[in-house]
């Protein structure tokens, strides 16, 4: 049996996971949380990761009941992500691989989300909606690539939610998106927000979401709150409904193009129950199936890197030490998917 350990730390989560032939043996992680109204800076995030990564590594081995000798391969997040945190994780992974005498594998973060989702849900060949703090993409597999049919043309949905949370001083604990989701449940008034979906030629991108102008919207939202024209809960509700409607629209368009009957939602925003509910309505109307996971695997974690690394390693891939660098820009469709027919 093949055992792979995965290191993830592309943003404010640091995780180490161990996977053995499709079984998640351990998956501890830590989160760098900043005060309300503040984001997380790369240097401070990397400092946090350096302070806890060895503790998390020890936890992962103990929880799995394994020793370094039991590990067959060491996988790490090559990108995309924030530079300083990525470097921190890559350095530890390289060191561990050399100390233990194990092969090394650089993994695309987005691919990690997809392969983890496929493992947990057992989805066969789904249209994938990948929604996180740094990425928003509609993806489908074809000819050894995960092809991007649509994506945001400015900021990701998760980034949009994070910015909004900072404007109205929502807590970052456990995450801005989660707290917006809870507040949205109490909203009663819909505030109209920009709804921008730009259809593109299918050879370039099947549909692009534009969250442009959000900063102006956030500024206006702040004024509305001060004038008591609406509540913070109303704005959270309105923002979710608008953003998620756009995501459902472009996902359905990609499904129609691919003749797909499955949707898999992955990424940190993917554990939002309202997004899953809206996507589920669309799937039911099309006679399709919706697949999603909870926060254990939607949110960045080490096991997803281990699982993608497991697939890559079993198909004969490894990363030479001289090539074990990181990159902040690493598109999903750059990776040759050698482990699928």
UniProtKB/TrEMBL annotation:
Entry superkingdom: Eukaryota
Key word Chaperone present: no
A single GO BP: tRNA threonylcarbamoyladenosine modification
Record-annotated Gcp-like domain positions: 29-306
Signal peptide: none
EC number: 2.3.1.234
Cofactor note text: Binds 1 divalent metal cation per subunit.
CDD domains referenced in this protein's UniProt entry, alphabetically: ASKHA_NBD_OSGEP_like_euk (cd24132)
Keywords from the UniProt entry: Acyltransferase, Cytoplasm, Metal-binding, Nucleus, Transferase, tRNA processing
Compartments it resides in: Cytoplasm; Nucleus
GO cellular component, one term: cytoplasm
Residues involved in a divalent metal cation binding: 109, 113, 130, 300
Binding residues annotated for substrate, in chain numbering: 130-134, 162, 177, 181, 272
Catalytic activity: L-threonylcarbamoyladenylate + adenosine(37) in tRNA = N(6)-L-threonylcarbamoyladenosine(37) in tRNA + AMP + H(+)
Chief place where the protein resides: cytoplasm
Gene Ontology molecular functions: metal ion binding; tRNA N(6)-L-threonylcarbamoyladenine synthase activity
Name of the top EC class for this enzyme: transferase
Annotated PANTHER family: TRNA N6-ADENOSINE THREONYLCARBAMOYLTRANSFERASE
UniProt-listed HAMAP family: Kae1
Protein family (similarity comment): Belongs to the KAE1 / TsaD family.
Official protein name in the record: N(6)-L-threonylcarbamoyladenine synthase
Lineage: Eukaryota, Metazoa, Chordata, Craniata, Vertebrata
């Amino acid at each position: 049996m093949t055992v792979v350990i995965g290191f993830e730390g592309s943003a404010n989560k640091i995780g180490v996971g161990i996977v053995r032939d499709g079984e998640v043996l351990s998956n501890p992680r830590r989160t760098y949380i900043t005060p309300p109204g503040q984001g997380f800076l790369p240097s401070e995030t990397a400092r946090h990761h350096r302070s806890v990564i060895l503790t998390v590594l020890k936890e992962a081995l103990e929880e799995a009941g394994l020793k370094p000798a039991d590990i067959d391969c060491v996988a790490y997040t090559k990108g995309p992500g924030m530079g300083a945190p990525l470097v921190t994780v890559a350095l530890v992974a390289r060191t561990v691989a050399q100390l233990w005498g194990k092969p090394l594998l650089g993994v695309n973060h987005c691919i990690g989300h997809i392969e983890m989702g496929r493992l947990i849900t057992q989805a066969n060949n789904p249209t994938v909606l990948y929604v996180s703090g740094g990425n928003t993409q509609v993806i489908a597999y074809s000819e050894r690539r995960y092809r991007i049919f649509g994506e945001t043309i400015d900021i990701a949905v998760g980034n949009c939610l994070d910015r909004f949370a900072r404007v109205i001083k929502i807590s970052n604990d456990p995450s801005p998106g989660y707290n917006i989701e809870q507040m949205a449940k109490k909203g009663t008034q819909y505030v109209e927000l920009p709804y921008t979906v730009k259809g593109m030629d299918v050879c370039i991108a099947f549909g692009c979401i534009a969250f442009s102008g959000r900063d102006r919207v956030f500024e206006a939202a702040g004024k509305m709150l001060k004038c008591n024209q609406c509540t913070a809960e109303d704005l959270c509700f309105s923002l979710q409904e608008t953003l998620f409607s756009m995501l459902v629209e472009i996902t359905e368009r990609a499904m129609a193009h691919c003749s797909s009957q499955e949707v898999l939602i992955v990424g940190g925003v993917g554990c939002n129950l309202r997004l899953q509910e809206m996507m589920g309505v669309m799937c039911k109307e099309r006679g399709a199936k919706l697949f999603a996971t909870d926060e254990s695997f939607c949110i960045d974690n080490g096991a997803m890197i281990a699982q993608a690394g497991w697939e890559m390693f079993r198909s004969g891939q490894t990363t030479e030490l001289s090539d074990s660098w990181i990159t902040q820009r690493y598109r999903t469709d750059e990776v040759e998917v050698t482990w699928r027919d």
